[in-house]
């Protein structure tokens, strides 16, 4: 399997190092884990500072910003691929609800809750 076998462990180690360097409780990082699967998704969603970390969220605790696009900014992507990222900030409630549904679906919920 070569070097690619070690990528998940390296990613987990880098995430643990990042969390250890930040104030306790200031960031939540969740990892996808399903035996036999390699699928993963990456995302950043920003919530109001007073939000709790439970799902589903009430309408006053919806994400207000997200990052879309690729996070692959390696040597290869710099010279061979076209990579793009975009930061979206909104106060529009329907878009915030959609972002919240996306997070809930990724966290194992159905994402259809309007709560």
Automatic annotation (TrEMBL):
GO terms for biological process: cardiolipin biosynthetic process. Its EC number is 2.7.8.5. It comes from the Eukaryota. It is an enzyme of class 2 (transferase). Keywords: ATP-binding, Lipid biosynthesis, Lipid metabolism, Mitochondrion, Nucleotide-binding, Phospholipid biosynthesis, Phospholipid metabolism, Repeat, Transferase. GO terms for cellular component: mitochondrion. Belongs to the CDP-alcohol phosphatidyltransferase class-II family. PANTHER family: CDP-DIACYLGLYCEROL--GLYCEROL-3-PHOSPHATE 3-PHOSPHATIDYLTRANSFERASE, MITOCHONDRIAL, CDP-DIACYLGLYCEROL--SERINE O-PHOSPHATIDYLTRANSFERASE. This is CDP-diacylglycerol--glycerol-3-phosphate 3-phosphatidyltransferase. It comes from Vitrella brassicaformis.
């Amino acid at each position: 399997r070569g070097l690619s076998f070690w990528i998940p462990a390296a990613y987990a180690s880098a995430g643990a190092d990042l969390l250890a360097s930040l104030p306790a409780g200031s960031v939540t990082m969740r990892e996808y884990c399903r035996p036999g699967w390699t699928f993963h998704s990456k995302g950043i969603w920003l919530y109001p500072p007073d939000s709790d970390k439970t799902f589903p969220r009430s309408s006053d605790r919806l994400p207000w910003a997200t990052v879309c696009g690729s996070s692959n900014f390696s040597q290869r992507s710099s010279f061979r691929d076209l990579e793009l990222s975009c930061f979206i900030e909104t106060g529009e409630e329907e878009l915030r609800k959609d972002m919240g549904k996306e997070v809930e679906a990724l966290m194992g919920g159905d994402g259809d809750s309007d709560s």
